């Protein structure tokens, strides 16, 4: 049962988490698009190192999502994990500001992503617990929209700061700390109902008893994610095609504008026509965008591809969580989301690592062609999954062992 609605048909917790995500993403997006450029242009690291750093960082986040999800289910508390996670992400900006070699950048990225890993599953579970089932697409879409507002403002501020600070990347990273600190203060206004701890000996997620739909969705997600390398490679590709640092940042802003504009409509559309249709189109769109990134021979096409990729994000990120939430009982939402993140984390590490090697050893186009093929394969399998669900409507959510 969701809490009392506040504004726009959403609860107070959903609003707070949205604003916090806005501020945190503002901070992170001041930093993130500059990191691959900082690594390659200032520190002289090759693309393979960028892939290694992004792969390890993202995998760390996803693995910790599983741990925090399981523990938050056990103690039935979400807020401590959310606060700790955002705290680590805030600290990572300072670490990055004193980095003088790629190992320190790696440490900063791991710290940042650990923070994301600790908070994300608990945050998603809290959103589920704070909303009615029929409103979850809207709630996740709203959260994603505010997240993207921060993502729009962040790169713009990054351009301004980089110019004002005369190209001093480290000072830009230091100033990114401020909005994160403000976000931390807002977290103390979150509320959650007092719940007794679950006895996981009597009630827990069991893989053997998980419904087939959930298992197949994990497989499809893995196949897709192994081709979805870090966005850092799109940034490097834009520069590889001839864009300046400022124009690269600007086209990155357009991607986030597109994602922000379409997030809530995508969530509402998913609630009305079904998340499966929205996700299917998203997978196919990704395949097309990555194919075009691979085939591009001039910088002009990136002005279309980045916004198109933003549309893909809107169609899949919030909607994907809403789709997954319908396959699981809310009592173990944290653990189930956590398992999902382990699968994604494993694939994400491989995706960025493979992309870095392909970029260095084959060509800058190779990672995108590979990603396009994997996404198209995932789209086909997702279609077959939903055909199977239609034929087997008796498929139930993951059972609880009692």
TrEMBL record:
The keyword Acyltransferase does not apply. One of its GO terms (molecular function) is transmembrane transporter activity. Residues 13-390 form the Major facilitator superfamily (MFS) profile domain. This is Permeases of the major facilitator superfamily. Keywords: Membrane, Transmembrane, Transmembrane helix. The chain crosses the membrane at residues 172-191, 212-235, 241-266, 278-296, 302-324, 336-359, 365-385. Pfam families: MFS_1. It comes from Candidatus Collierbacteria bacterium GW2011_GWA1_44_12.
